[in-house]
Amino acid sequence: MQDPFDRFKDWFEDAQKAEDMADAMSIATVDEQGRPSVRMVLLKDHGPEGFTFYTNLQSRKGLDIKNNNNMAFCFHWKSLARQVRIEGEVNAVSDQEADAYFASRPKDSQIGAWASKQSQPMEGRFEFEARILKYTAKFNLGDVPRPPFWSGFRMTPRKIEFWQDRKFRLHDRHVYNKNDQGNWDIETLYP
Ligand SMILES: Cc1cc2nc3c(=O)[nH]c(=O)nc-3n(C[C@H](O)[C@H](O)[C@H](O)COP(=O)(O)O)c2cc1C
Predict the structure, then answer these.
(1) Report field, pTM of the whole predicted structure over 0.85
(2) Would you state the CATH architecture of domain 4-104+148-188?
(3) How far is the CA of 59 from the centre of ligand 1 (A)?
Protein backbone atom coordinates (compact mmCIF):
# COMPACT_ATOMS: atom_id res chain seq x y z
CA MET A 1 0.00 0.00 0.00
CA GLN A 2 0.97 3.62 -0.47
CA ASP A 3 3.26 5.65 1.75
CA PRO A 4 0.96 7.52 4.22
CA PHE A 5 2.25 10.93 3.14
CA ASP A 6 1.50 10.19 -0.52
CA ARG A 7 -1.89 8.87 0.47
CA PHE A 8 -2.57 12.01 2.53
CA LYS A 9 -1.50 14.14 -0.43
CA ASP A 10 -3.98 12.34 -2.71
CA TRP A 11 -6.83 12.64 -0.22
CA PHE A 12 -6.02 16.28 0.53
CA GLU A 13 -6.03 17.14 -3.17
CA ASP A 14 -9.38 15.37 -3.57
CA ALA A 15 -10.72 17.34 -0.58
CA GLN A 16 -9.48 20.68 -1.95
CA LYS A 17 -11.35 19.99 -5.19
CA ALA A 18 -14.48 18.88 -3.34
CA GLU A 19 -14.93 21.52 -0.65
CA ASP A 20 -13.99 24.89 0.86
CA MET A 21 -11.56 24.92 3.77
CA ALA A 22 -10.29 21.41 3.22
CA ASP A 23 -7.26 22.65 5.17
CA ALA A 24 -9.27 23.10 8.41
CA MET A 25 -8.37 20.50 11.02
CA SER A 26 -9.16 19.98 14.67
CA ILE A 27 -6.10 19.72 16.88
CA ALA A 28 -6.01 18.41 20.44
CA THR A 29 -3.61 19.26 23.24
CA VAL A 30 -3.52 18.31 26.91
CA ASP A 31 -2.86 20.56 29.89
CA GLU A 32 -0.68 19.83 32.91
CA GLN A 33 -3.46 17.79 34.50
CA GLY A 34 -3.81 15.70 31.35
CA ARG A 35 -7.13 17.35 30.47
CA PRO A 36 -7.63 17.55 26.71
CA SER A 37 -8.88 20.50 24.67
CA VAL A 38 -9.53 20.75 20.97
CA ARG A 39 -9.92 23.56 18.44
CA MET A 40 -9.71 24.17 14.68
CA VAL A 41 -6.65 25.53 12.88
CA LEU A 42 -5.50 25.62 9.26
CA LEU A 43 -2.95 23.18 7.88
CA LYS A 44 -0.20 25.20 6.22
CA ASP A 45 2.21 22.54 5.02
CA HIS A 46 2.38 18.78 4.76
CA GLY A 47 4.79 16.12 3.51
CA PRO A 48 7.26 13.54 4.83
CA GLU A 49 8.63 16.17 7.25
CA GLY A 50 5.22 16.46 8.89
CA PHE A 51 2.10 18.61 9.21
CA THR A 52 2.38 22.31 10.06
CA PHE A 53 0.13 24.97 11.59
CA TYR A 54 0.75 28.46 12.97
CA THR A 55 -0.45 30.09 16.15
CA ASN A 56 0.19 32.36 19.12
CA LEU A 57 2.73 30.72 21.44
CA GLN A 58 1.08 32.28 24.52
CA SER A 59 -2.37 30.88 23.64
CA ARG A 60 -3.89 28.02 25.58
CA LYS A 61 -2.68 25.52 22.97
CA GLY A 62 0.76 27.18 22.85
CA LEU A 63 1.17 26.80 26.62
CA ASP A 64 -0.15 23.22 26.53
CA ILE A 65 2.41 22.30 23.86
CA LYS A 66 5.24 23.89 25.86
CA ASN A 67 4.40 21.47 28.65
CA ASN A 68 3.53 18.42 26.52
CA ASN A 69 4.22 18.29 22.81
CA ASN A 70 2.04 15.25 22.12
CA MET A 71 -0.85 16.21 19.87
CA ALA A 72 -3.61 14.67 17.78
CA PHE A 73 -5.02 16.17 14.57
CA CYS A 74 -8.25 15.25 12.80
CA PHE A 75 -9.62 16.14 9.36
CA HIS A 76 -13.19 15.46 8.29
CA TRP A 77 -14.03 15.95 4.62
CA LYS A 78 -17.80 15.66 4.61
CA SER A 79 -18.37 15.65 0.89
CA LEU A 80 -16.00 12.68 0.50
CA ALA A 81 -17.10 10.96 3.73
CA ARG A 82 -13.47 10.69 4.76
CA GLN A 83 -11.62 11.21 8.01
CA VAL A 84 -7.87 11.35 8.67
CA ARG A 85 -6.46 11.12 12.20
CA ILE A 86 -2.82 11.92 12.94
CA GLU A 87 -0.94 11.48 16.22
CA GLY A 88 2.59 12.39 17.20
CA GLU A 89 4.85 15.02 18.69
CA VAL A 90 5.11 18.59 17.51
CA ASN A 91 8.18 20.81 17.41
CA ALA A 92 8.55 24.48 16.59
CA VAL A 93 9.41 25.28 12.98
CA SER A 94 12.65 27.20 12.43
CA ASP A 95 12.62 31.00 12.79
CA GLN A 96 13.43 31.31 9.09
CA GLU A 97 10.47 29.16 8.10
CA ALA A 98 8.12 31.06 10.43
CA ASP A 99 9.45 34.41 9.14
CA ALA A 100 8.90 33.34 5.53
CA TYR A 101 5.33 32.21 6.19
CA PHE A 102 4.51 35.31 8.26
CA ALA A 103 5.86 37.53 5.47
CA SER A 104 3.50 35.82 2.99
CA ARG A 105 0.39 36.78 5.00
CA PRO A 106 -1.74 39.87 4.26
CA LYS A 107 -0.63 42.96 6.21
CA ASP A 108 -3.92 43.10 8.15
CA SER A 109 -3.39 39.52 9.34
CA GLN A 110 0.17 40.39 10.36
CA ILE A 111 -1.11 43.34 12.40
CA GLY A 112 -3.83 41.12 13.86
CA ALA A 113 -1.15 38.69 15.06
CA TRP A 114 0.58 41.55 16.93
CA ALA A 115 -2.69 42.92 18.33
CA SER A 116 -4.25 39.66 19.56
CA LYS A 117 -3.29 38.39 23.00
CA GLN A 118 -4.81 35.10 21.89
CA SER A 119 -6.78 33.21 24.57
CA GLN A 120 -6.33 35.94 27.22
CA PRO A 121 -9.36 37.74 28.73
CA MET A 122 -10.38 40.98 26.97
CA GLU A 123 -12.33 43.88 28.55
CA GLY A 124 -14.26 44.50 25.37
CA ARG A 125 -13.89 44.74 21.61
CA PHE A 126 -12.72 48.39 21.95
CA GLU A 127 -9.57 47.17 23.70
CA PHE A 128 -8.72 44.93 20.75
CA GLU A 129 -9.53 47.69 18.24
CA ALA A 130 -7.27 50.10 20.14
CA ARG A 131 -4.45 47.57 19.90
CA ILE A 132 -5.08 47.09 16.19
CA LEU A 133 -4.85 50.88 15.70
CA LYS A 134 -1.66 50.99 17.77
CA TYR A 135 0.09 48.35 15.65
CA THR A 136 -1.31 49.72 12.40
CA ALA A 137 0.36 53.05 13.27
CA LYS A 138 3.54 51.39 14.49
CA PHE A 139 3.98 49.33 11.32
CA ASN A 140 2.56 51.93 8.97
CA LEU A 141 5.71 52.01 6.87
CA GLY A 142 7.63 49.00 5.67
CA ASP A 143 7.41 45.32 6.46
CA VAL A 144 5.78 43.94 9.59
CA PRO A 145 8.21 41.73 11.53
CA ARG A 146 6.97 38.43 12.93
CA PRO A 147 5.96 38.78 16.60
CA PRO A 148 8.29 36.79 18.88
CA PHE A 149 5.20 35.12 20.39
CA TRP A 150 3.87 33.83 17.05
CA SER A 151 5.22 30.81 15.17
CA GLY A 152 4.45 27.39 13.76
CA PHE A 153 4.55 23.80 14.93
CA ARG A 154 5.24 20.74 12.85
CA MET A 155 3.80 17.37 13.83
CA THR A 156 6.03 14.34 13.25
CA PRO A 157 3.44 11.58 13.05
CA ARG A 158 3.80 8.14 14.59
CA LYS A 159 0.26 7.10 13.61
CA ILE A 160 -1.96 8.09 10.67
CA GLU A 161 -5.40 6.62 10.15
CA PHE A 162 -7.39 6.87 6.93
CA TRP A 163 -11.12 6.30 7.30
CA GLN A 164 -13.44 5.95 4.35
CA ASP A 165 -17.17 5.67 4.69
CA ARG A 166 -18.71 2.54 3.20
CA LYS A 167 -22.31 1.42 2.97
CA PHE A 168 -24.05 0.12 6.09
CA ARG A 169 -21.27 1.50 8.30
CA LEU A 170 -18.82 -1.13 7.00
CA HIS A 171 -16.19 1.59 6.76
CA ASP A 172 -12.57 1.11 5.73
CA ARG A 173 -9.98 1.96 8.38
CA HIS A 174 -6.30 1.73 7.52
CA VAL A 175 -3.82 2.67 10.21
CA TYR A 176 -0.14 3.36 9.51
CA ASN A 177 2.05 2.92 12.60
CA LYS A 178 5.68 3.97 12.52
CA ASN A 179 7.89 1.11 13.76
CA ASP A 180 11.29 1.26 15.50
CA GLN A 181 13.06 1.05 12.13
CA GLY A 182 11.21 4.15 10.99
CA ASN A 183 9.08 2.19 8.50
CA TRP A 184 5.30 2.10 8.41
CA ASP A 185 3.34 -0.97 9.55
CA ILE A 186 -0.17 -0.98 8.17
CA GLU A 187 -3.12 -2.52 9.92
CA THR A 188 -6.80 -2.65 9.15
CA LEU A 189 -9.25 -2.06 11.99
CA TYR A 190 -12.86 -3.02 12.44
CA PRO A 191 -15.00 0.01 11.74
C1 LIG B 1 -11.71 27.19 10.51
C2 LIG B 1 -10.86 27.78 11.61
C3 LIG B 1 -9.50 27.96 11.38
C4 LIG B 1 -8.67 28.48 12.38
N5 LIG B 1 -7.33 28.58 12.15
C6 LIG B 1 -6.50 28.96 13.16
C7 LIG B 1 -5.09 28.91 12.97
O8 LIG B 1 -4.56 28.53 11.91
N9 LIG B 1 -4.31 29.30 14.02
C10 LIG B 1 -4.84 29.70 15.23
O11 LIG B 1 -4.08 30.04 16.12
N12 LIG B 1 -6.18 29.73 15.43
C13 LIG B 1 -7.02 29.36 14.43
N14 LIG B 1 -8.39 29.36 14.63
C15 LIG B 1 -8.90 29.75 15.96
C16 LIG B 1 -8.77 28.56 16.94
O17 LIG B 1 -9.79 27.60 16.69
C18 LIG B 1 -8.83 28.99 18.42
O19 LIG B 1 -10.01 29.72 18.68
C20 LIG B 1 -7.63 29.86 18.82
O21 LIG B 1 -6.44 29.44 18.20
C22 LIG B 1 -7.45 29.84 20.33
O23 LIG B 1 -7.30 28.49 20.75
P24 LIG B 1 -6.67 28.12 22.19
O25 LIG B 1 -7.26 29.07 23.20
O26 LIG B 1 -7.08 26.72 22.44
O27 LIG B 1 -5.18 28.28 22.09
C28 LIG B 1 -9.24 28.86 13.64
C29 LIG B 1 -10.62 28.68 13.85
C30 LIG B 1 -11.41 28.15 12.86
C31 LIG B 1 -12.88 27.94 13.14
Answers:
(1) yes
(2) Roll (2.30)
(3) 10
